[in-house]
Amino acid sequence: MKKGTLKKVLGYAGKYRILIFISMFLAVVTALLSLYVPILAGRAVDQLLGKDAVNFGNVINILIRMAVSVLIVAICQWIMNKANNKITFQVVRDVRTEAFDKLQKLPFEYLDTKQTGDIVSKIISDVDLFSDGLLMGFTQLFTGIVTILGTLIFMFYLNAKIALVVVVLTPLSLFVAKFVAGRSFTLFKQQSEARSDQTAFVDEMIGNLSVVKAFAHEDENMEYFDDINERLEKTSVKATFISSLTNPSTRFINNLVYAAVALFGAFSCISGRMTVGGLTIFLSYANQYTKPFNEISGVITELQNALACAERVFSLIEEKTEIADKDSAPSSLEAEGIVDIKDASFSYDKSKKLIEDLNLNIKKGQRVAIVGPTGSGKTTLINLLMRFYDVDKGSISIDGYDIRDIKRSVLRSNFGMVLQETWLKSGTIRDNITLGREGFTDEEIVEAAKASHAHSFIKRLPKGYDTVISENGGNLSQGQKQLLCITRVMLSIPPMLILDEATSSIDTSTEIRIQKAFNKMMKGRTSFIVAHRLSTIREADVILVMKDGHIIEQGAHQELLDRKGFYYNLYNSQFA
């Protein structure tokens, strides 16, 4: 899995080949010049021949060259770091954009079964941690590898025997790094999952804080949060401890290498096979050779964390999208509102049946009420009409078109929808009514607000229609939020309407006035009304009585009452 994840990361980085080439070229220049400086230092040492035997002219000349080399190294490193930053954050931008884009295309089935906080954690926290590891990788990996290879070449050129000692001891450092990295990946993945659970729980609690307080559930929530926090602490401590073993372990082995070089070099100097300047160069190279191993081992540790986070993000990106619209699907449709459902079957959990063999024919302009006990399939039928879900079997057609042959955007533009649950975004009241759609005048917006009886409370707001509200409506009451959602539909009345408990949060007197506005709005339009308060649907042309996913009764209000069946008992139970 790690190799597959790394391959995907490199695929994203591959788009920025020019920057990668610049970074690698500068890494080579930096490494070679860094290796050239010890040679100059060794030559300077060899100019110190003894007391009163120092060639100051050569020493000064060498020091100038050293200063120029160090300056060039500094400039190259600055440019290289800038290029690495650009590569990293462009890759991160691409990954995050693709993840958010996938979010727009995921089927409702995925969103309904995943915690919101978990998805947020993948797109925000995991991508941030992924960027940290990637940046360290680009910054230190190229330079480290070039330094190791360059140092080896120079050491073998200077003294093959001592260089061989270094090469023999090097695999110990690699073995330790690989051993630690393999164990830290699993722990970092567990840490990422625990962090995701924590984010999901906090998100859930913030969104439902009033409910938590109403049921005095604070203590239980603290206990549950403490459990998650403790799990995160344990996995974080383990991951950090295991990963932190890399640096001291490799440093110990590197010090052994340095000591071995010093020992063998000293004997070479005594025997006359190497000058003191040569030993100085070799010791400097031994230090430079082992230093990248420390850095690379740190990079590998960070990469384990980064890859564990990347794996979670890629799991979101690789989720199956909802079935794509057909190429032959019409790009526009002005529906008349003839709806035909044939032998439709559907269930959220395929092991539990919900809607089975549903048949329904609705004529243009009919007002259809859907009633039934909780869990009977009322809202599910709406989800199928809007194609939030596709039927498992059978078909649903509008004006003779199977809705699977119509683009989702076109299908949904023919429906106006007011739900029991309200949705408002950060912005002005006007923005929330128009939802960013252009072409509406202020007069039309005010007229729609008056029709929904929202105008009176909007006028009382500090800046009227230009009042800025926060996400989910801020201090607006639930009834006021619902009135704004009704105003949206009043502003742009489509051919078909869906009202799912549209007035559930509104007081009775306002509801009566809105019902009159709805009756006017529904005239000539096919309308679906889901209601628990049966007094609001007496005027419906057809009432569908649902139970356990089936339509068990169908007819007008009085007709169903005369039958004295399920609807009769349901209706009378509200007025007993």
How would you portray this structure in words?
With about 575 residues, the protein is of the alpha/beta class. It folds into two domains: about 1-315, ABC transporter transmembrane region fold (Up-down Bundle); about 340-575, 3-Layer(aba) Sandwich (Rossmann fold). The chain has helices at about 1-15, 15-45, 55-105, 110-115, 115-160, 160-205, 210-215, 220-245, 245-270, 275-315, 380-385, 410-415, 430-435, 440-450, 455-460, 480-490, 510-520, 555-565, 565-575, and strands spanning about 340-345, 355-360, 365-370, 395-400, 400, 415-420, 425-430, 470, 495-500, 525-530, 540-545, 550-555. It has a six-stranded mixed β-sheet with strand order 6-9-10-3-11-12, with helices on both faces. A four-stranded antiparallel β-sheet has the order 2-1-4-5, with helices on one face. A two-stranded antiparallel ribbon has the order 7-8. It is elongated. The protein starts with a helix and ends with a helix. The model has no long low-confidence stretch (mean pLDDT about 80).
